[in-house]
Amino acid sequence: MSSTAHTHVAHRDDYGSRMGMWLFLFTELILFGGLFIVYAVYRYMHQQEFHLAAQELNTTIGMLNTIILLTSSMTAAMSITALQKGNVRFSMSLIVVTILFAGTFMVNKFFEWSAKIHHGIYPGSKELVMRPEGEILYFGLYYVMTGLHALHVIVGVTIFVFVLVFMKTGTVNQTAYVKLENAALYWHLVDLIWIFLFPLFYLIH
Amino acid sequence: MSDHHSQENVHVVDYGKYIFVWLSLLAFTGITVSVSGINLGNWTVVIALVIASVKSWYVLNYFMHLRHEDIVFKIFISVALITLAIFVSLTFLDYSFVR
Known about the structure:
The complex is a heterodimer of chains A (205) and B (99).
Chain A: H1 14-45, H2 47-54, H3 59-84, H4 88-118, H5 126-129, H6 133-169, H7 178-202
Chain B: H1 15-36, H2 43-63, H3 71-98
Helix pairs in contact in B: 1-2
């Protein structure tokens, strides 16, 4: 379990790369953590209004997106196993599947947001401004936090596309796959954030 | 485990283990959704957060391979989580005296 000697071949430090990625992920933790604190304080101050507003969200779409993200996290993790076993094609297919799941997530998000905007609920809308303060805050946070999360989904897909290209060219291969590991780490973080967003926004009834 | 030269302690995780973790995560999602239908007052959010934390534990340890990483990684993440916990507690300490 504990580290054995790190032998370096051709200036490679996979251990250091992964550590750097984890450090970056901690900045993400603080970024979203800050927003979760804002959420917690406003929810504490406007409990009833948060309850009422949350009932307007579509739990089914939220749950569907939870399942999609969890599954995509699994396929991302599996792609590493496949590459370690030397199964490059299977590994690449798993990444493509992960990207497809991410796409499905975004399509669901699009329909979810469209429905809300269609009902006149978006930051600064006439319909929303007339509502009580707590509901305005709830929907503001809903758009900011799920929006920032969706941005991370797009970034994750972009990173995976780069990894696919690297695998195609052979830069990422059976013995050098830390780029794939780091891409997967980023993707799991996206999953982790959603694990908290889902119950806090969709399930407060 | 195969012959990797520059990869320190390579750990190949079985597909089966990932499927098991995935199924557990789905089960926990099902529990969160069904529990949210029961009105338990202030406990509702506590239970939701506990389940989310258990799910995170699975993701961190298995999907993100934290269990196969050095102790340094675990210390790092503890520091990050404790920092966040301090932010949360100080904020709420502040707010409980505001009103």
